[in-house]
Write a structure and sequence with these properties.
Helix content: under 10%
CATH class: Mainly Beta
Largest sheet: 22 strands, antiparallel, barrel
CATH architecture: Beta Barrel
Subcellular location: Cell outer membrane
Radius of gyration: 30 Å
CATH superfamily: TonB-dependent receptor, beta-barrel domain
Family: Belongs to the TonB-dependent receptor family.
Number of helices: 10
Protein name: TonB-dependent receptor
Shape: globular
Structural class: mainly beta
Pfam family, one: TonB_dep_Rec_b-barrel
Number of domains: 1
Keywords: Cell outer membrane, Membrane, Receptor, TonB box, Transmembrane, Transmembrane beta strand, Transport
CATH topology: Maltoporin, Chain A
């Protein structure tokens, strides 16, 4: 044993010296054990453990080198190979997982096949900023969760470059931060695993065109592989074209003692996903959109260099360095939610009798005139009803890792260190706009009333820059105590530092309140508040697992583990700050939490500098069994549970503002069963999962379109109404609830409420009939049960009643309440609730057939949504301004200028209708 292991100083990264000594010395002991054995014995004993007939060894973590077969992994790891992936015809990893893997469902909030939320066991990997992320995703060992929000851009992963996809369940510490519910590991093809040329083409419905090409070759020492993917379609909904261009290239050198690999991943994609749509508009016309455009341009440049060195037959060392740079430019056209607050032209002349000088922009708002009260249908001409928001986001991540792996007869031991550093820059501006008859939002200042400054000028929202660094050390040991009994012990230590520099517009004025000609307009628009923040987090996450084979055909397993997720940059930037600050109003001074008097968060367009949030901690457990039935069938069954502490959610805090805040505990638990095999000409695969995802703590969130919300304006905290003074209003009993923030327009979530977007029952299955050696037909079914929509987190929304508000009671500052009594603000009349707060369950069938001509050419046809099922995979509660009018004025776009006639609605994410495609694949080996 080395002198250092007998007491010399050793330090690995930022780990304490004793931990480093334990890791390194244990590895040295194993290495000396291996060296003491005759090489023939090592060879004869190692190979059966590494290569088992019918069982493919699996890399135990993001880095390769430690090889375990399935019977040595204490969890329900699901895997798909390149042949299964190619035959699925899936456009993205999300679509593939939804069709082929247990415990998976999708939410299509964006309306684009490359931008879906992927839910696995109740945890989500999503491209949408602001969605709570709980899955880590790796591409050849490189984490592809972006630093800004931990989002995953599925369009940046080319499907034809994948050698295999593994899904690891639970809080596996080897995959690092954000592995709360699971990890996805993608391994790419090489010139050694993929020889020759493969080409495929597809055409059909929605003007979809796709071409793919791969080329691979090697001479025994050098190998090269390249994959190209080009995709474009018009989309089945209005204004929904998309284009995807992906390239992956890889070069490998294999020597007698090692391997060196260099790779490049490039992408240049234009995606349009026009999002959710009010159910009323969907019923009128399936293809319509609520507003457009919603365009995202993703650009990626990723380069990596990795290597493996075989010190001996039992010991290898792997290392990797990488640089990943992505740019995201987005343009969002939305309805202007501030329209509901429109009243009249605040800059009108004092003589209100002059025609045209007192203009009601919203017919729901009564206007007080000299001598009486009148109300109108609202003025259409010159009223901005749209909002245009361009954003830019640049992100760069780079880092490296070194790992040593001992593959011994009775021990599989790994130890490694890694460092990852990222930086991000985000900027957004906003403009008031108009909406045309096709619901396209457009800029046209000449046709907007000139007093609206924001119609002709960009108004900055925020300018953000931030960096983050994570240093980690990890280990894993699988001890085969008996040939049929394996014990696993693993752990990872993480230390993360986050630094950010935030600039946000200081003024509180809404866009329609910024008036041309104002003496302080430059100050209102351009004055920004700067906040610099630094946070540090650390965690040690362990795992213990066991595998037992009572008979060769049955494997029983179980594990417990702990994970962590550090709050992302966007969550820290939008964290609620309850520090009280003074608010002057004339001669009065009130106090309110800082977040209530700063610009609110309206993702992805608004950020504000706010305080520390604790990291999320997960405790996970799983137990299960898997095995074979005869030689033709495989089965599995497992139960699981993961509890989160200090979970983070996008919540409401009052005054129409929302932030990220810690909401306490959440839980995901359930079970999975599956079977796959073949009988004669039939191949069968069935998978079912039950997932119960619930909140476990009480908290409040803004949800103004939920029938159970508090519609009493007096439920606001008095500090939220400084102009009235703390003693000049009549607060309701709940005005001091919710941590003193009030409950106006909020709902209360209690333990046991189900998380939105997560169906309890999920099923997928495939039945394949091999009619001849060349011709086969496959029928695939995917089914999900009902789920609650966003905005219905308390699960209490239901049809019936209205959103009639109770006006604010106040005492005029100029009068005496003892003699005049309290006054009450005017409120529009209530709007009825007619929709459910959930999406219904559904089942979708796909039909696929292929015919092989010779050894190289295959022709195929695919029909998706065979029976043209109407279904929704996502939803949220909202209000529809494109509604019929009785007293209101309807503009050219269909917009009702009387917001009291708007329809409370459930916005839905519709599934695509029936689609038919034809294509071919060609292989030259």
């Amino acid at each position: 044993m080395s002198e250092q292991c007998r007491g010399g100083p050793i330090a690995v990264g930022s780990l304490p010296s004793p931990i480093a000594i334990a890791f390194v010395c244990y590895g040295v002991v194993l290495s000396e054990i291996a060296a003491a054995q005759p090489s023939d014995d090592v060879s004869s004993e190692v190979k059966p453990d590494v290569i088992v007939e019918g069982v493919r060894p699996t890399d135990a973590g993001p880095m390769p080198g430690l090889l375990l077969n399935q019977d040595q992994i204490p969890g329900n790891v699901q895997s798909l190979g390149k042949r299964e992936i190619a035959e699925s015809r899936a456009l993205s990893v999300g679509e593939l997982m939804n069709e082929k893997m247990q415990g998976v469902s999708i939410n299509d909030y964006s309306g684009n096949p490359f931008q879906m939320d992927v839910n696995y066991r109740g945890f989500t990997a999503s491209p949408q900023t602001g969605t709570p992320q709980g899955l880590s995703v790796f591409f050849d060992g490189i984490r592809v969760n972006e630093p800004f929000g931990d989002v995953v851009n599925w369009d940046l992963i080319p499907m034809n470059a994948i050698e295999r996809l593994d899904v690891f369940p639970g809080s596996n510490p080897l995959f690092g931060l954000n592995t709360l519910g699971g990890a996805l590991s993608v391994r790419t093809r090489s010139g050694f695993s993929s020889h020759g040329i493969e080409a495929s083409g597809l055409t059909g419905s929605f003007s979809r065109q796709q071409g793919q090409l791969t080329v691979g070759a090697n001479n025994g020492v050098l190998g090269g592989f390249a994959a190209l993917n080009f995709f474009e379609e018009d989309g089945w909904r209005d204004h929904s074209p998309s284009q995807v261009r992906q390239f992956f290239g890889r070069a490998d050198w294999r020597g007698r003692l090692g391997v060196i690999t260099a790779s490049a991943l490039l992408a240049d994609n234009d995606l349009i996903g026009n999002g959710l749509i009010p159910s009323e508009l969907y019923d009128e016309r399936r293809e319509s959109v609520f507003t457009s455009p919603d365009e995202t341009q993703n650009r990626l440049r990723q380069f990596a260099l990795s290597g493996a060195y075989d010190v001996s037959e039992a010991l290898n060392i792997t290392a990797q360095v990488y640089r990943r740079s992505s740019d995201r430019d987005a343009l969002h056209g939305d309805a202007y939610e501030g329209f509901d607050d429109f009243s009249f032209d605040h800059d009108a002349v004092a003589d209100l009798t002059q025609p045209g000088r007192f203009l009601a922009r919203n017919g729901a708002v009564q206007t007080r005139l000299v001598g009486g009260i009148t109300s109108g249908s609202g003025v259409v001409d010159g009223t901005p009803i749209g909002l245009m928001t361009p954003t830019t986001l640049s992100q760069t991540t780079y880092g490296g890792a070194v790992q040593a792996n001992w593959n011994l007869p009775s021990h599989k031991f790994m130890v490694g260190v890694s460092i990852d550093r990222n930086r991000a820059a985000y900027r957004m501006v906003q403009r008031l706009a108009l909406i045309d008859a096709s619901h396209r939002v457009y800029l046209d200042p000449s046709n907007v009333a000139p007093q609206y400054y924001a119609a002709a000028n960009d108004v900055p929202g925020n300018d953000f820059r931030g960096t983050g660094t994570t240093r980690s050390a990890y280990f894993s040991e699988t001890w085969s105590m008996l040939p049929s009994l394996h014990l696993t012990l693993a752990g990872r230590y993480n230390r993360t530092g986050v630094d950010s520099d935030l600039l946000v517009r200081a003024a509180l004025d809404d866009l329609h309140e910024l008036r041309t000609g104002s003496a302080i307009i430059d100050q209102l628009v351009n004055d920004q508040t700067r906040t610099k923040e630094s946070f540090d987090y650390s965690s040690f996450n362990p795992q213990v697992g066991i595998n037992w084979l009572p008979v060769p055909s049955i494997n029983l397993y179980g594990n417990v583990s702990r994970g962590a997720r550090v709050p992302s940059v966007v969550e820290l930037g939008c964290a609620f700050d309850d520090t009280l600050v003074d608010i002057p109003f004339g001669n009065l001074t009130s106090r309110a939490p800082r977040s209530l008097v700063s610009p609110g968060c309206s993702l992805p367009t608004t950020l504000s500098g706010d305080p520390h949030l604790p990291q999320i901690r997960s405790d996970s457990a799983e137990a299960g069994a898997r095995g074979t039935l005869g030689r033709r069938f495989q089965w599995n069954a497992s139960v699981f549970r993961t509890d989160l502490q200090d979970d983070i959610y996008f919540v409401g805090v009052g005054d129409g503002k929302s932030y990220f805040d810690t909401v306490g505990k959440t839980r995901r638990q359930g079970f999975e069963v599956g079977v796959a095999g073949e009988v004669g000409m039939l191949e069968l695969r069935l998978a079912y999962s039950y997932t119960q995802a619930t909140f476990q703590s009480t908290f409040y969130t803004v949800s103004p379109h939920n029938s159970s919300a508090d519609f009493n304006q007096n439920s606001q905290a008095s500090t939220n109404l400084p102009e009235l003074g703390a003693f000049n209003s009549l607060p309701s009993p709940t005005a001091s609830a919710n941590g003193g923030r009030g409950t106006y327009r909020m709902i209360r979530i209690d333990p046991g409420a189900r998380l939105p977007g997560i169906p309890e029952h999920n099923y997928n299955g495939t039945l394949t009939l091999n009619l001849t050696p060349a011709w086969k037909i496959g029928l695939e079914a995917t089914a999900h049960s009902s789920s609650y929509v966003r905005g219905n987190e308390n699960n209490l929304h239901e049809p019936g009643g209205t959103d009639q508000e109770t006006g604010l009671y106040f005492c005029s500052l100029g009068g005496g309440c003892a003699t005049t009594g309290l006054e009450q603000t005017f409120v529009r009349r209530g709007r009825p609730f007619t929709n459910e707060g959930r999406t219904e369950g559904f089942i979708v069938f796909d039909l696929d057939t292929s015919y092989r001509i010779g050894e190289r050419l295959v022709l195929f046809a695919r029909i998706s949504n065979l029976f043209d099922e109407d279904y929704f995979s996502a939803g949220r509660l909202g209000v529809n301004p494109f509604s019929p009018a009785v007293n209101g004025a309807i503009g050219p776009s269909g917009w009702n200028y009387n917001s009291s006639e708007w329809q409370n609605s459930t916005y839905v994410g519709p599934g695509a209708p029936r689609g038919i495609w034809f294509g071919f694949t060609y292989e030259s080996r």
